[in-house]
Q: What sequence folds into this?
């Protein structure tokens, strides 16, 4: 725990110089103030990175952080300083923090290490706007090099078939309201019946923003998970940028509430909400047919929604306006991956998230800083690219650094996204497959004109635990090849499918 003797007033907070342990003070009322990863700088100013959450933060035994609950213990003299607070609504505003001298030692202290990533829906604090901009751009503060508390590997909830085979189906962008286009369900059902997968992922934008009530949100979700539930096929989802859009209609159905809803289904494998940034981060392991030892794995990440209006006093004009996978999520992946390797050995895996990485773009063009289709022919040969690109690669505003982490750990064989409905390509980018699943839903935009629905489809991944690398390949399936009506006009359900009984 940091030495707090001689704590100075008006502490200067700077994420760039943060290191060491963390302190969190909870006032047991309406606001939780977290002062994370701070130290006494050579100049005598206290430096660190903070965030504020509305509502009392209740630590659980496995939570990261040092939590001070109740009256502040006597090791503090007084905290009295001014911080710039960032919020999407108001930009940077000053906030005075004044924690008086304690009158009691009755504080409960939970001590672990912590990360310093930025919470998505909270208020963000930092020493300066520029320093916060550095954090959001993916540059980690020094404290991020301090490992998180040792992660535990997931238990295997899936199992290879007796023949050593296993299939994963990726649907994405089902993206519709409570009266889903019936052809979306017809496509999903046809793929499931033909492929008989052991697991299905709906990889983001499960629904759109049209629902006007919590019931309609649940109906929209229920429509597209019933193909798996009715066939008793294990499934999970990741969140995309549109899954919370109905909150603008007052539904209050945040990702956390949607996650709580979907976890009630019999065959859903999403893990419960935790303190890692995002709401659908999960590790799933597939056990060998011959034992309970994992033979392959699946990673699910929440790639976020939209970039804020501005960072560091600068707007995002000229940049992609989407969110990005945060350092905290990458740290979680690295820790869980390492824990799995320590227990079971290296477990090869596939990873799914909604918004593509910058490297999805770089692979297609064979370069980082140009989008020249003339360079694509070389990239096809170099990276073995197959499939089509009919729209831009709409990446997050900042490069998260996830691809470098995947290279470092060496256990992810492919990273697949959705988001861009009419891109279907995949290739091998420096030893890791990067690719898209075609858009599944008949509700959102497609190719356009008479060919509007020509790329509605799914992606299938084949595993064989008897093969050298277990993962043996991937392919796409399209609705147009399954005899499904391709009329551009909408064909909604007459009424939503019945919700399951609690």
A:
């Amino acid at each position: 725990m940091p030495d707090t003797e001689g704590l100075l007033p008006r502490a200067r907070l700077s994420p760039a110089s943060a290191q060491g342990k963390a302190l969190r003070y909870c006032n047991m009322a309406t606001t939780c103030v977290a002062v994370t990863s701070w130290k006494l700088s050579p100049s005598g100013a206290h430096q660190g990175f903070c965030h504020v959450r509305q509502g009392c933060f209740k630590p659980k035994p496995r939570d990261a952080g040092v939590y001070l609950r109740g009256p502040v213990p006597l090791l503090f003299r007084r905290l009295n300083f001014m911080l710039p607070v960032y919020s999407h609504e108001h930009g940077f505003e000053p906030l005075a923090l004044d924690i008086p001298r304690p009158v009691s030692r009755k504080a409960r202290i939970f001590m672990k290490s912590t990360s310093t990533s930025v919470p998505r829906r909270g208020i963000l604090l930092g020493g300066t706007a520029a320093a916060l901009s550095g954090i959001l751009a993916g540059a980690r503060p020094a404290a991020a090099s301090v490992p998180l508390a040792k992660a535990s590997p997931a238990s295997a909830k899936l199992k290879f078939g007796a023949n050593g085979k296993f299939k994963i189906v990726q649907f994405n962008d089902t993206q519709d309201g409570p009266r889903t286009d019936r052809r979306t369900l017809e496509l999903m059902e046809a793929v499931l019946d033909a492929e008989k997968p052991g697991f299905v992922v709906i990889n983001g934008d499960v629904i759109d923003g049209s629902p006007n009530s919590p019931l309609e949100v649940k109906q929209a979700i229920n429509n597209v998970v019933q193909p798996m539930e009715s066939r008793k096929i294990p499934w999970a989802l990741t969140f995309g940028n549109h899954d919370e859009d109905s909150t603008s209609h007052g539904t209050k159905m945040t990702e956390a509430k949607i996650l709580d809803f979907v976890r009630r289904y019999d065959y859903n494998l999403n893990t419960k909400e935790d303190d890692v940034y995002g709401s659908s981060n999960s590790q799933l392991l597939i056990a060998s047919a011959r034992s309970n030892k994992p033979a392959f794995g699946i990673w699910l990440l929440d790639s976020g929604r939209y970039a804020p209006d501005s960072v560091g006093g600068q707007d995002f004009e000229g940049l992609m306006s989407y969110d990005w996978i945060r350092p905290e999520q990458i740290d979680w992946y690295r820790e869980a991956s390492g824990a799995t390797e320590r227990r079971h050995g290296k477990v090869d895996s596939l990873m799914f998230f909604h918004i593509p990485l910058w490297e999805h773009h770089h692979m297609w063009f064979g370069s980082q800083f140009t989008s020249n289709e003339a360079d694509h022919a070389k990239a096809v040969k170099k990276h073995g690219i197959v499939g089509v690109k009919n729209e831009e690669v709409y990446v997050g505003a900042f490069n998260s650094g996830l691809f470098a982490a995947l290279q470092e750990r060496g256990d992810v064989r492919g990273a697949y996204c959705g988001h861009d409905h009419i891109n279907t390509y995949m290739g091998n980018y420096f030893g890791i497959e990067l690719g898209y699943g075609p858009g599944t839903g008949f509700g959102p935009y497609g190719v356009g004109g008479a060919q509007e629905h020509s790329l509605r489809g799914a992606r299938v991944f084949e595993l064989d635990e008897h093969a050298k690398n277990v993962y043996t390949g991937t392919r796409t399936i399209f609705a147009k090849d399954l005899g499904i009506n391709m009329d551009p006009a909408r064909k909604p359900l007459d009424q939503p499918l019945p919700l399951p009984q609690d």
Q: What stands out?
A: Residues 1-150 have pLDDT under 50 and may be disordered. The chain has two domains: 15-145, 156-481.
